[in-house]
Design a protein that fits this description.
Elements lengths: L6 H26 L2 E3 L10 E5 L6 H6 L6 E6 L5 H8 L3 E4 L6 H12 L3 E4 L19 H7 L2 E8 L1 H4 L14 E4 L6 H6 L1 H22 L10
Parallel strand pairs: 1-7, 2-5, 2-6, 3-4, 3-5
Antiparallel strand pairs: 6-7
């Protein structure tokens, strides 16, 4: 679990996280020829909530890629068991109980944001079934309002083709694209309300997704429905 106030623990996690991440990201870049757009849209300081689409188990590495600021990820508490639990716990992860309201995890996320860090969330709730961005679920606005975090929408494409949720192992090769959208200040949710913001965010991320697909030489998805 995350221990922000433990400097020694944070240092150990930083060394483990950065060493493991750079190795794995380097391998992914070689295998999938990852191309990143909008790098300057990710703030260099202050609390940030990155809201990304969810295509595969490799998404956390693809989301952060070579960006130097550490990303924290919210992970199901049931995954913190056995060997893989030790691996996951070594990175910047926040365990959460999906069976009900987990106030302890919510407070941990807010504390991390108040420390000026980045938390990456997948507001669809689960991995895509068809490659498209599913309807975004509300619930993250409390984190943004309490922490004053800037929102950065992010989309990726290509990794679903290599590792869909119906496939046990990923296929090698292909191309993956990543795009960071323009930052959205926390006050935007306060001004227009969460419901309107979620609708707007759906449209922003769907437009970003199709723009990214076109840059990669792919046909855009039909999001008209």
């Amino acid at each position: 679990m995350v221990k922000i106030k433990n400097k020694d623990g944070f240092l150990r996690r930083y060394i483990w996280h950065e060493g493991g991440r750079l190795l794995l990201v380097g391998l992914l870049y070689l295998i999938y020829r990852i191309k990143v757009y909008g790098k300057k849209n990710l703030p260099t300081d202050g609390p940030v909530v990155v809201l990304s689409n969810h295509q595969s188990f490799l998404d956390p590495l693809i989301c952060q890629n070579w960006r130097w600021r550490p990303f924290y990820y919210v992970t199901r508490a049931t995954l913190f068991k056995g060997f893989w639990g030790l691996i996951i716990d070594g990175f910047y992860t926040i365990p959460i109980n999906q069976e009900g309201a987990d106030l302890k995890s919510m407070r941990a996320i807010i504390d991390i944001l108040k420390c000026g860090r980045i938390v990456c969330l997948y507001p669809e709730g689960s991995r895509t079934f068809d490659g498209k961005i599913a309807e975004i679920k509300p619930g993250f606005s409390l984190l943004v309002r309490r922490s004053g975090a800037t929102i950065v929408p992010m989309v990726m494409d290509g990794i679903f083709d290599r590792w869909p949720r119906t496939q046990k192992y990923p296929k090698l090769g292909g191309r993956v694209g990543v795009s960071y959208g323009k930052p959205i200040p926390a006050d935007t949710i306060k001004q227009i309300g969460e419901e309107a913001f979620v609708r707007n965010l759906n449209q922003i991320m769907q437009t970003m997704h199709n723009d990214l697909r076109q840059k990669m030489g792919k046909e855009p998805y039909d999001y008209s429905s």
